[in-house]
From TrEMBL:
<dbReference type="InterPro" id="IPR011022">
    <property type="entry name" value="Arrestin_C-like"/>
</dbReference>
<dbReference type="InterPro" id="IPR050357">
    <property type="entry name" value="Arrestin_domain-protein"/>
</dbReference>
<protein>
    <submittedName>
        <fullName>Arrestin C-terminal-like domain-containing protein</fullName>
    </submittedName>
</protein>
<comment type="similarity">
    <text>Belongs to the arrestin family.</text>
</comment>
<dbReference type="InterPro" id="IPR014752">
    <property type="entry name" value="Arrestin-like_C"/>
</dbReference>
<keyword id="KW-0716">Sensory transduction</keyword>
<dbReference type="Pfam" id="PF02752">
    <property type="entry name" value="Arrestin_C"/>
</dbReference>
<feature type="domain" description="Arrestin C-terminal-like">
    <location>
        <begin position="183"/>
        <end position="323"/>
    </location>
</feature>
<dbReference type="Pfam" id="PF00339">
    <property type="entry name" value="Arrestin_N"/>
</dbReference>
<dbReference type="GO" id="GO:0005737">
    <property type="term" value="C:cytoplasm"/>
</dbReference>
<dbReference type="InterPro" id="IPR014756">
    <property type="entry name" value="Ig_E-set"/>
</dbReference>
<dbReference type="InterPro" id="IPR011021">
    <property type="entry name" value="Arrestin-like_N"/>
</dbReference>
<dbReference type="GO" id="GO:0015031">
    <property type="term" value="P:protein transport"/>
</dbReference>
Amino acid sequence: MPKEKTSKHVKCDILFDDNSSGIFTAGDRVTGVIELHLTKIKKVRGVCLLISGYSAVLWEAKVPDGPKNKKVKAQFKGREDFIKQKQYLAGSENGAGMQLPPNLVRYKFDFSIPPSAPTSMEGKYGHVRYLLQVTLERPWKFDHNFQQPFTVVCRADLNQSNEVLCIPTRAENMMTFYCGLCRSRPLMVSATTPKSGYAPGETIELEVFVQNSSKVTVSVIEIRWQKILKFTSQTRVIGQTQIPKEESNVQYEVLEVRKIPSIEGENDARFVESFVVGPVPSTETTHSRIVAVEYELALVVKPQASTKRMKLNIPITIGQIPLAGSAMPYAMSGGLQKLNDTLNEHSSAPPAYEA
């Protein structure tokens, strides 16, 4: 593979037509212009534009291997392409070579984002990325590469979901305590939301009802509004051996935490907590086989002087188009820009690779 090198004699600008933010919706047609600024004649085989959109996962873990099941380091990875187009703006892959003049050279580009393309996403063990790359191919020397990422937002319409998102959602749990052979009366907790589908800018009203018939005090109830990123590998690599292997890795990203104070024994209590949905990507469970994005309200009930914990989970579906009758979604131009900024803040995502 030819090496890459920057050059002070070449500058490249990749510009989108009527879209300075670089944020697009799945299904959009994307047009623009590539401007090459050359200060001297440059010999190339061709000027190539690579349009790519893909999801990739990558992590390492120790697993048992061999006849003695000794733990060794394994790499789990996968890749899935949504857009993979290669266009020659000048020259060709098998061309003899050509000379680019020392001035401004412009090339137009035009492509469509598939309607099923998932929303851009960055996580600890994987990502969904979209990228334009211009390459000045010089197989006899160094290639010059110039990249321009762009953001894709899936047009997730909550009204078209197969799930019933407009009805109340409820989770409940119960626990008892022992003192010797005697069992206490129950501690019961329930949590309810008026619906389970929300768009950015809407408020989730969570009602928590505690019926504490025991004599044990509940020290705190912690509520986490969190994003769940699920990554699924396609292959496992140990040394030089690579085999098909589906393994999952989950990353929890806490968006907001609330704490309900103590509740004495033999007491009932009712609380309402409000969570505003910020500029987050939509729930994504269908458009990629290896990367999924989900959301939930997770409650942890902590009784006093006890190691026991009660857990309740309410799944929440996020879309860009709210349920009929809901407030206007946050994801207008400003909200989309904040989503793009949020995606670009992540710097710990694994590098792209060829599966």
